[in-house]
Amino acid sequence: MRGGRLIVRVPREKPFQEYFLTGCADGLGSLESAQRIFSKLAQVLAQRRVQPLSERIYGLGRARRRILEMRSRALRTWGLESALPFTYIEGRPSDRREWSGIQVWGVGREGEEGAPVASVACPNGIRGRLWTRPEFRLLHISSVHGAAPGARIPLKPAAQARRMFLNARRALSAQGFRYAEVIRTWIYIRRILEWYGQFNGVRNALYARPDFFGGNVRIFPASTGIQGHSLDEECNMDVLAFSPLDNSRARPILKSGRQGPAFSYGSAFSRAVSLPIAGRRVLHVSGTASIAPTGENLCEGNPEGQSLQAIDNIAAILRENGAGLKDICSATVFYKSEKALQACRKAMSRLGAPLPAVTVPADVCRPGLQVEIEAVALP
Prior knowledge:
alpha+beta, 32% strand, 379 residues
């Protein structure tokens, strides 16, 4: 994949255009490919008048400054704002690839007045993007960390995790949302194999409190929990919240025919969520691995088998909700090793499922798991 590539998916044209932009690094993960991708991305954003809702950049920490300079330069060249919120994630450090890619989700401007998308500032330096329509309000918050207001990040990982969730709730409240309206989280944990159990304990304890959600209704968001970090924190997260202004509701999907509820083995998240937007449902599928209905790992030591299982698990969720692999607009493949990456690509080829995916080196939440995949589909 010389030079990298930018995949543009526009699955919705009316009543507005919805864009899923996936910039994939070349095979070497070179910064030269990053420069080309950012230039192409900025051109699409400008020419199609796309208003970003979320932006995730995957690269090494040592390359962060250069990558962000490329991003800013490309956006300014096309007359675009470079100070929009984004999330920068380093997965498992790799000497081979300096960057993996970028994902942008956005909507086209509606008439000359522009799309009703605005940047918002939340407490503790947290920022987000708020999309307002007559039918709903949708808020994406980027890079929530575990620092207390006016203080340094706590040293203990579990304390960071607890404060991170509290900071997310505070940021939501500042924009008129309750945690019960959170439909999707993306959680990055620097040393996931060392303390994922503690992390689950913190999340479970908070989610067991009705007051945490801001009411009597508890809805487990769809979620990804994967190795990663942005700066010096042990964990950080992105949050997507949806507040309907009509009778529509987001619907959590707790299980499928291939997988039982995640909370049956101690993880408080839904397998996916079905989000109603303008008469169609967007399916946000959680990070999905090779896990059996009863919770144990499948195909240990066989990365291709694990990849097939993960893809089949995603396909089952989509199929049971009126969609298929062909409807995937954006995906992320997290892989433990180069062998696992090549096995996953082989599995996708066998299934005829060339996903618009960024591939990111990262440890999965269990030592025996080698691949995890998250996806967004719009049938």
